[in-house]
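task queued by scheduler; priority normal; single chain, no ligands, no partner chains; default sampling; output format set to structure tokens
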Amino acid sequence: MTLAFTVWGIAQPKGSSRAFVPKGWTRAVVTAANPKTKSWQQLVSAAALDAMVSPMLLDGPVSLSVSFYLPRPKSLRAKTKPHVTKPDLDKLVRSVKDGLTQIVWHDDSQVVEVRAWKAYTPPSMPPHCLITVDSEVSR
């Protein structure tokens, strides 16, 4: 089974969680490094659900392909230039994988192959992300 869909919006990286114990407390408070990650993951989940013919969690190994098209600076205009600034590609992928957990697959440990890249959006196109999940992995 192959599932392919587009998520419209600015991809957000999955940052590290931070925990601290406030003075006088006995429990830790956990905060996310990027508060926008949750809303991005919800967009990924919703787009995946919309694209699925029959909602069903995949079992076994899966392959993930992700293309991130990030906002183009006005200074670039129509020039083609690689996206070599933040956010980090691996953190963007982590965010997508977490958004697909319990929507497409049981756990992101099922992902055995990842193909990912990031680029600036083409001129006059909004930021978006193309995602393809393939459950027919042959090795």
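post-processing summary
- The chain is about 20% helix and 30% strand.
- The longest helix spans residues 37-51.
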